[in-house]
Amino acid sequence: MSNTTDAIARFQTLLSKQGQLLLSKLAQEELTAENELRISTQLRKEFPVQLVLDALAQHQLRLKAQAKFSRAMEMYFTKSGLEQASSEVIAAYRAKRFAELKNIADFCCGIGGDLVHLANVSSVAAVDYDPLHLAIARVNADVCKVSHPVTYNESDVRAFDLSNTDGIFIDPARRTTEGRMRTGDSEPPIEWCIELLDSVTRIGIKAAPGIDHEMFPDAWELEFIAIGKDLKEAVAWSPALSKSKRRATILPFGHTLTEKPGPPVDVKMPGEFLLDPNPSVTRAGLVEELARELNAWKIDEKIGFLSSDKEMHSPFGRTLKVLDSGPWNQKQLPSRLKQYDIRVVDIRRRGLAGDVDQFQKSLKLTGSRKATLVMTRVQEKPWALICVDVETTS
Question: Is residue 31 part of a domain?
Fold first, then answer.
């Protein structure tokens, strides 16, 4: 308790007039590894040592947070709170599902990454057992000027009264004080989060993108969210908020692909073009839905690559022009690459074992073109495809 009390007191000092002045000074500095010691030494002549240390740490967190938050340089963070927080583009997108509810509980609210967007669509009860994170969430909500009332509740989410709650968003911790938990583990556990359905019907549960689909009942929607090409997280929606069984979403433009019944997709040899699906599509298990949408086929029953003899355009994948396709033969690959004047190779491996870094070093290419080498399986056989982006085929 004394450590927590000390952390809150130090946070409050950052909010003081002196703390704000110090943070303002740091924001004007171009901090580098080379000049940080000099700047820190100079600041210690004007400000208390502990305040300088805390302000420097907060400043560094703010710099990192700019990748997630547009107002990062005004907000406050802890290392663990920033690591767990969703990017604002995801939080804003996700909050829309709760838009018609009156009272939402934000369980395990942390530093308020989701709170500031939930509170723009509804009144929110922010709940967290960590008083420091709760204090930070309060300040961040003020910084972001949320449009609906927020109440702050220092409590274990298991003890929170749900009698006045229409919906729940919960971001269970996936880290312990010692480090990251195993994939699928969380606190509170996913099973407990699902059981909240006995009290509230509209629930969203944030999960790691590697979550096992089988952890959620069939009536729940499991959505996998990517920002561009990077798969970031999953969210499970209870039946009352569900719109599909499985969904792949790509932000910031909101492209979304859902599960739709259809005929089996053909499995054939690679054609002139190869499409590498976005990881949100593969994790959602929607490769066949994408294939039907593009009139494409699979090159292997168990591998996610799609192929066609026509150029494919989709926000859900990267299209490559196939220059060369044949069985995997590591000894022959350098000569095959040389034939196409290849100098730089981006290796995409899926379904085929091998040390990519070591293989990359062994190629020793001297050409002028960049290509993608796809190490995969075609109808269960090891295969190699030399490809280029469709924009560079001329």
Answer: yes
